Task: inverse folding
């Protein structure tokens, strides 16, 4: 069975490390689910979520030149939940006026430059007399 990127497969957890879990996909093929691809929530310890011999559904996200497979449980479940919510239609946003965006950006940029120049001059003024050498601090 040829596995390609984008395939959704069912496999069994064959090993767990601190950085992820190895999933046996059958036919002597194994892939790695990185700890960041296990859940949408933060995972401190993968052992809290997965155990060896657990059956999981994974999505093949990458296949390296050496045959190593990157898998994702999170993305496999996301696609599954997206198909359930097919009736959901997002609200349409009103088109933005490009000219006002550019003007706003120019205003933001000029105010940022003024503020940064002011901060730099204050820092320069405060550190100029503290460079060491002879004499005291200049006012």
Result:
């Amino acid at each position: 069975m040829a596995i390609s990127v984008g395939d959704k497969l069912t496999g069994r957890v064959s090993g767990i490390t601190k950085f992820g879990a190895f999933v046996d996909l059958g036919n002597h093929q194994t892939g790695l689910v990185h700890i960041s691809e296990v859940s949408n929530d933060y995972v401190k310890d993968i052992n809290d979520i997965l155990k060896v011999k657990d059956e999981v559904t994974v999505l093949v996200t990458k296949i390296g030149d050496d045959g190593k497979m990157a898998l994702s449980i999170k993305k496999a479940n996301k696609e599954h939940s997206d198909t359930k919510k097919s009736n959901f239609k997002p609200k349409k946003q009103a088109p933005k006026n490009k000219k006002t965006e550019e003007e706003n950006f120019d205003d933001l940029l000029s105010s940022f430059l003024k503020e940064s120049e002011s901060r730099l001059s204050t820092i320069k003024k405060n550190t100029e007399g503290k460079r060491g050498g002879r004499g005291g601090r200049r006012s």
Notes: The CA atoms of residues 82 and 88 lie 9 Å apart.
